[in-house]
Amino acid sequence: MPEDAAVPTAGAISARIDRLPATRTIWTMLVLLGFGMFFELYDLLFTAYVAPSLVKSGVLTASTAGLFGTTGVASFIAALFTGLFVGTILCGFLADRYGRRAIFTWSLLWYSVANVMVALQSDAFGLNVWRFGSGVGLGREMVTIGAYVSELAPKRLRGRAFAVNQAIGFTCVPVISFLAFVLVPAAPLGIEGWRWVVLIGAAAAPIVVVLRRGLPESPRWLAKHGRLAEADRVLKVVEAKVEAEYGKPLPPPGADEPVALASSFMDLWIPGVRGRVILMSVFNIFQTIGFYGFSNWVPSLLVKQGITVSTSLGYTTIIALAAPVGPLIGFVLGDRFERKWIIVTAAFVILVAGLAFGQTREAALIIAMGVLLTLANNIMSYSFHAYQQELFPTGIRARAAGFVYSWSRLSVIFSSFIIAFVLDAFGAPGVFVFIAAAMAIVMAVIGIFGPRTTNLALETISH
To answer: Which domains does the chain have, with CATH numbers?
Structure first.
């Protein structure tokens, strides 16, 4: 058999991907995944912007009865994150078993349908049931997109790839905020504004078909599952397009990367992987308190500080404009600085800006600290999403990332009720002291125990 007809090894497939230059074809695939991220984050983050309208319409209550009441805003948040927990911890393996492309598509469809049902509800029970269903689809989608991006991007592009992916995704925040600002007071056609905001997010479904056409299955995933000839065919198509755009022969691939054999849940507990699972589980429990403690509660925090609902939505609309800027800053930082130190620095900024935000009632300072919090949160978000995907072998990447990420979902379920209690008892300053303590733990665990990953091959990191 001629040498060029030989079936390559899985290590050779990985080496060929890592030598690819960043041409239009590579960026097109990553941008398409970014559009998937847009709808994912839209669904995840509209909670804060529709919560005041849900209370005003009587679907939810302004306060939570007892610590774990089921009719307040905290229960709405908890329902979503319970679904996210189930989707990440129990369903993360689906992308490892059935492929990144298929699960990416079906998860988008799943939570789009669930969102339509959310918009049709008129009581807290139905609202929470369908919000839970939406969360299950989102949980699957999150780990799938992360694995997909990390495997399609060459090693010197991974940081910037995640930054662009999140920048596109976080453009949803000013969109949601603007839609809530316009639609909530207006209630077009006599339909409450929060329902419009939710239904617009369900537009993901018809866009799925368009997205899917431009995305190949991950060659790394195909190779790991023994489908080496198929992986070779998919990669040759990509290489031909990249070479045409590059205008000269592609650089030669490096040595075959060692490919880890891990493929089952029990492989999360083998030496070398186990420590990273524990590290990222602890990290995720505490990082989410900073991110969602602010993003899910910012209008309510402002109302608690004596600012009206309409004014708070105006402030949050301005603050939300900064959401996609954080990952764009990350695009500059992404592959120049070690990822673990970007996470630590962002956590420190959240700690300081959060304490300042909780102490002020001045409009300019509220907006300034809100923008700083948003930038730092989103820089940390793009960084750790890249980081936790890089740490694990291809065969268990989605499963492992889903498992460790599920602890952040569980954390939000309980921290939402804790924040509701702290907000009622101690006001916004108390909430930000709680957030600051969580960020101090994030800085310690990643700074002390986190391994290096920037500009290293995925297979090298996982070994």
So the answer is: 3-462 (1.20.1250.20)
